[in-house]
Amino acid sequence: MKEIRNLQLSEFQKEIINKLDDEYCYKISYGFGIYGEYVAIKIFNKEMEHLFTIEGRDNTVSINNYIEKLKKKLEFLELILKENK
Fold it and tell me: Which helix (H) or strand (E) holds 81?
């Protein structure tokens, strides 16, 4: 197995890690994807449930876009639940 040295986290990833409190933990994942090597941070809650992944190319804009998509999905699910009552 290749020894992994000098993982390069983006500034955004470092910022996220520094903002985590005791309610959350993280794991750094390293691998190869279709675009080459990547370093990702997987965020977990205390129960070790995976919440989301921050990739090296992520930034505030991409996270805000992700939040907007999740809001639309949530609105749709709420609509389905209302119709099924």
Answer: helix 60-83
Q: Does pTM top 0.85 for this prediction?
A: no
DSSP category for residue 3: P
Q: How far apart are CA 2 and CA 66, in angstroms?
A: 33
Taking only the tens place, the pLDDT of each residue in 4-42 is 445 688 889 989 998 999 899 999 988 887 777 788 999
CA dihedral sign, ordered 38, 72, 46, 25: positive
Q: What is the dihedral of CA 14, 17, 19, 20, to 10 degrees?
A: 180
- The kind and range of the H/E element at 55 are strand 50-55
